[in-house]
Amino acid sequence: MKAVRFIGVKQPLQIQEIPIPEIGTRDVLVKVKAAGVCHSDAHYRAGISPVKPVPLTLGHEVSGVIERTGTAVTNLKSGDRVCLHYNLSCGDCFHCTTGNDQFCEKVSMIGHYTNGGYAEYIAVPARNAILLPDEIPFEQGATLMCASATAFHALRKSRLKGGETAAIFGAGGLGQSAIQLAKAFGAVEVYAVDINEEKLNLAAEYDAIPVDAKNTDPVAEIKRLTNGKGVNVAIEMIGLPQTMKQAIQVAGVMGRVVIVGLSNRPLEIQTYTELLGNETELIGSNDHHLQELPILIDLARRKVLDLSRIVTRTIPLDADAINMTLDDLERFSGDVRTVIVPGSGQPGN
């Protein structure tokens, strides 16, 4: 089968022919129908987050159709539409049994530590394959597995409740989901911060108040719009120390700041004025939980979460097209979400 693979830090991904993966008794083989291109994949290629082993097939936002099931699998069958939870966990350790499977003692992430979905087929444990309703297209189902799921988990960590306000830093794939989910959680106002005009326009269509960080100071602007109060919840989804600091600075009294974006650079905080003085909470948000995904999928099925405008581009399983998309993500100039659709045609379509 064809697979687009990571071959080394700061090197272009390459297309290779590799065997179709074998499956165990509790696994499923999935024919990939869609694989999202995530900003994390750009971080992997750049060496910000190590990938091993090398070479490795990237891609952790995956949906498809079950091709074959292991002999011990009873809840899924060939032909089922599924999307894949990317954290492969044991299901038995303390963290798994308490619902925090991302901290499993044996956790391994597809597309990061084991072969992912930039390929024609992928094998995963059956517990990681979640039924995808017919109402949700494969492209949208793929993005649910990271962009939307990570946003959902971050909002749960924030404890956002009805009547509060929120600021979302980054209006890409994660941010557009976070905006809608914040509204679903009951936020009365959501501020969307970005430098990309098209992403800000889309955020406005989802009833967010756009804040153009390219032409204004987002901290001053949000303080102005909130009469100096700041927001109850700020979520940073970009991964830059500058935007992390801005998220902290817009938090009001007893505000909660959730850091989602990946960065390998330190964050400096003015201890009293930015943290202690307002009893601001700084919260890390790491991935999401397997048990959260059925809830999220149902929100998408009922159109509480609308993904129809978030997938803005599809490309084939082509190394050049994927590398160009990763280049755009590194420059923060990419589409809201680009999704690989194997067999979709010529590069760039």
SSE topology:
Blueprint: E1 2-6, E2 14-17, E3 27-37, H1 39-46, E4 56-57, E5 61-69, E6 81-84, E7 87-88, H2 94-97, E8 108-109, E9 121-125, E10 129-131, H3 138-158, E11 165-169, H4 173-185, E12 189-194, H5 197-205, E13 209-212, H6 218-225, E14 231-236, H7 241-249, E15 251-259, H8 271-276, E16 281-284, H9 293-301, E17 313-315, H10 319-330, E18 338-340
Parallel strand pairs: 11-12, 11-14, 12-13, 14-15, 15-16, 17-18
Antiparallel strand pairs: 1-2, 1-4, 3-5, 3-9, 3-18, 5-6, 6-10, 7-8
Question: Mind explaining what this structure looks like?
Answer:
The protein is α/β, with parallel strands linked by helices. It folds into two domains: 2-136 and 307-340, Quinone Oxidoreductase, Chain A, domain 1 (Alpha-Beta Complex), CATH 3.90.180; 148-284, Rossmann fold. 28% of the residues lie in helices and 25% in strands. It contains ten helices and 18 strands. Strands 3, 5, 6, 9, 10, 17 and 18 form a seven-stranded mixed β-sheet that branches. Strands 13-12-11-14-15-16 form a six-stranded parallel β-sheet, with helices on both faces. The protein has a three-stranded antiparallel β-sheet with strand order 2-1-4, covered by helices on one side. Helix 3 (138-158) packs across helix 4 (173-185). The radius of gyration is 20 Å and the shape is globular. The model has no long low-confidence stretch (mean pLDDT 93).
